[in-house]
User: Fold these one by one.
Assistant:
Number 1:
Amino acid sequence: MKIPSVTSIVALLVVCMLAMPPGRAFPVAAAGEYAETPIRELTLGVSAQGRPITAVQIGVGSRKLVIVGDTHGGPEANTHELTVQLIEHFRANADQVPPPTRLYLIPTINPDGLALDTRFDAAGVDLNRNMNTNHDACPENDWSPTVFGAYGIVSDTGGPFPDSQHETRLIRDFLLDASGAIFLHSNAGLVFPAFCEHAPSIALAQAYAEASGYAYSRTWEAYKITGGMHDWAGSMGIAAITPELISGVDSEFPQNLAGVQAVLEQAAVLLPLPEDQIAADIRVPAVIWRYWKSHGGEDMFGLPLETARRTEHGLVQTFTRARLELDEDRADTPFLVQPAPLGTQSAAARSYGGDDAAFAPVAPDAAPVFFPETGHSLREAFLTYWQRQSGLADIGYPLSEEFEATTVDGRRRIVQYFERTILAYYPEDDSVRPEPLGWRQLQLEGVAAPWMAAQVR
Ligand SMILES: [Zn+2]
């Protein structure tokens, strides 16, 4: 079991303070309001150092196109300037964003790097090398802590694990329902698509190159890019490109406006709607599938046990270890899909036992990480797992301390209740796994079927 470093604990605490609690974290527009509000200001969240990360939405079409300005901080500040200019242009010319597109412009996903005049985030991680790019069929772009750079320089800036950074998680979750993504960088003077032979990304890059005048490049030739945002997006089915400005100083606004306008004009062809996928012979709605896949897939949530059901606010689908809920009222926040609070229900029912001592609040210095929100702590293997699995988003706050209980496989194990799940420790392979609360929930609701048993481990 790995003990986290002091810096990772500090980073975690910062994230804990800043991360939104489960539920409706943002004031969002009421149903129907978008139709009368073609221009809208959004705050997606804040950076690790508390700087706001904002977007401007223009248009209300079904195909979401996201332009991500500055990712690489101060050294690529001209891409921030370019995005601000694009915002001013489309504010004044909102009619240039007709259906089927709705356009989002994010001036910077790395406000800390912009303020601190560094390519990296506040923790020294390259956000464009931090994403989990292990989902596609191309191993050469898989996330790596070691990063290759210009002139053969190798640095250790990929982050401690994929999707470790707050900003990385934020853009990942904001893009879950996107059709297209344009990540602006400088200064190589070319446009390249997501690398793993993703046809929509290739078509988008070619269209942008032709209109802007930048050279089209099938790959990035200078060095290997691992953990790149474009590659993660491509692996999710999003048409994703990286235009590199020629200059490191000028914003090259006319060229890029022409590129964006060309994409808008051909949106019905270039921006594919998210597609449903099949897992374990069961259809999974596109956006739920993207959440499931990019937040840990089968290991974290198990396989789907039923087709998605329609609810008043969206969709719900039960997997072996979780129930994933898509709430359309949370569209255009990073919280469009969330796991249901099955752990909270289990804790209330004491379904895994746990005596008063396990539920009693503990002292703030009882463990490496203490949560004042619930008065409970996290340590060792569960702490490491929580950090790597988008903690608050996928698991939630701890509702108990660790205690021993009989898990679904009939063994006595160390477990702990959380809002969205119950974690169990497996000493035989030093692993942590969420208990099959989705499967249990279906049993409680009387829709259990014998074949489910085979899917629980
Ligand atoms: Zn860059």
Number 2:
Amino acid sequence: MTATAIPARLALVVDAWFDGEKRHADGRTTFSVEDGRVVAIDSGDHGAALDAQGWRVERGAFLLPGLVDAHVHLFLDGAPTDGAVRAAHLKQGVDALTEAARASARQSLACGVTLVRDAGDRHGINHVVRGEARRPGSGMAQVRSAGLGVKRAKRYGAFMAMDVDDEASIRGSVQRLAADSDEIKLILTGIIDFDAGAVTDEPQFDAAAARCVVDAAHAAGRKVLAHCSGAKGLAVAVEAGVDSIEHGFFMDRTTLARMRDADLAWTPTFCPVHFQWAEPSAVGWSANTVGNLRCILDGHGEMLRAAHALGVRLLVGTDAGSMGVEHGHAVADEMQRFVEAGLPVDAALRAATGAPRAHFGDAHPRLAPGAPFEAVLLGADPARDLQTLRRPVRVWPAPSLPEAAA
Ligand SMILES: [Zn+2]
């Protein structure tokens, strides 16, 4: 696989493709790409004619928009699974952590992930890498950055969030963060207690305080992504009107129906919990806890099916950087979890391409004439072989284009 600069005039003939929303598999299609932008999508193979006009012609099996990982922590390295190694990683200076984040963004792009949403880091490294990734030929996935999140003092989330207190402090902090954060991260609950098989702590914010975060973010033109699991936290998230629920373990159908009605997206992040279940020796989990993990994953899969049936907007996000969750590679894992849960392959493709771009307010959430050519070529149709997602043939990163061009 190579991330490829786009020739000035590229004609790409494919057997089938996915536009970000739906599949097109009724015969060959020719994409005409000029100066990094899709100018035409025509049925049939027009390669010979375009070749005669001096276009560079390429061919392949299956094209889809560049993959999106809607939940990563670039400055964390998911590969080490030893607790001491992970703790030592976090103790490094900002320069070393920034270098780790660059490596994460490069590895993501190599896996066909052209855009990641960084869900928070304490140092603002995500903002730095966002800027570097925009430079032409950076070799990195583009970054949508949540900067530094907000949390309560002495509660979970110190590696990615700052403390806020009363309403005035919430409003002031969110307003300041919104100046350079693409979204505001709200740490609403802690993490799951796997030994107990439940979220055991109380939400960090009540509905009024969470609503204050949302109102301040929306007033500044920013969406809110809420780190949230467990019934109590989910109730607060929906009541407060956040824009996406991250993780959302212990989901229920009533909450899903309210999410659908409010157009509230869900990023279920199976990966970190699935790793703990698949490799219990990495943490030293007991048989009882492994049983809890399986129960949690099965319940999560059932709720994902319910969400799909209800029409909740679903986002593929891996929590890459968590133990055992490797940047880039994890996107195919998470999509596999979607399919194992019973979702159609196209629903998993949508959750990893068009759905996150639409949620982020991208002007071009689908591959269509006028859109920047940010795409991945696969060697086979993922509906026939899902593993083909792990071996992208070509990756075209987001081109640097003037904003006003049409
Ligand atoms: Zn996270």
